[in-house]
Amino acid sequence: MTFSGNVNTLRYDDRAPKTPQSFHPAFTEASPRQTSLLGEQRWPQLAVQLFAEPACIELTNLLPPSQLRLMLLLSGTTNMQVRSNGHTLSYISRPGTVKLTTPHHQPYEMQWAALTPAPIRTAHLYLPPTLLARTAETAGLNPARVEVAEGCNIPDPLLYQLSYTLAQEVAATPGPESLFAESATQLLAAQLLRRHCAFSHVLPDRRGKLTPAQLQRVRDYVQAHLGVVIRLENLAELVFLSSYHFCRVFKRTTGLTPNQFLINERMVRATELLRNSDLSVKQVAATVGYSSHAHFTQLYARHTGQLPVSITRQRPA
Questions:
Q1: What is the pLDDT of residue 33?
Q2: Topology of domain 212-312, per CATH?
Q3: Which of 71, 53, 49 is nearest to 151 (CA)?
Q4: Domain 7-195: what homologous superfamily?
């Protein structure tokens, strides 16, 4: 799958008419003069891009994205104006809401101006439209009735928090957990189906749990592959479930998401190696699947309350 990226915010039309006086930014010091890419991460069903935006842009002609796009403000407050199909929408944009745009959107015009001194930081998440159709199909719904309802300033705390957490992971680590990203992507797709489709969908709540044998099969696979990337679909295939249903059933069975379970298993193995082997902290990190020593140290301290080096110091001489 090819993601086109956020070319729109990088290509402003210099021929756009001048901005009205009311849209001049209240604060411009230390503000970027053009959009700059701060970070980017891509997975098979999701791409996340982080941007530093100008404090003010004049009325700009934009084309719809090639993928379903969720855009959220991470910091700053702006006075926004969007014009499309002869209609104008003006609103105050703050962190906490989401803007949804689809490939079916008509070309539109947009302008904004900062209302506070905080830097304008945005996150853009791209999902293929086929993801929603597949999620609907595996949930027993009609995939032909999947059409996302676009909107600006959408107050959906779950959709925002999922998107914000993914953006924070991209900003904080060089390579966020693939399993976490895939699980979060499935949750995004489910929430879009439940709350943001032109046709209402009620996802079935299947109360089943994994059998002890199925759970053991998953645990054995995870323990045998701690040093490599573990994908959500690999775990789901072990118990003959779709990725969507596996996430729900696994959480109901264990009380943990698949990503939380994977991190716990890696931390347990790491502790064993730190105490009982001659491997350095960096080598232990690589053995349990972390290419970044710093990321491993941060995760280990968060989950155990100790630094990895404090464990190695306790090794018998």
A1: 61
A2: Arc Repressor Mutant, subunit A (1.10.10)
A3: 71
A4: Jelly Rolls (2.60.120.10)
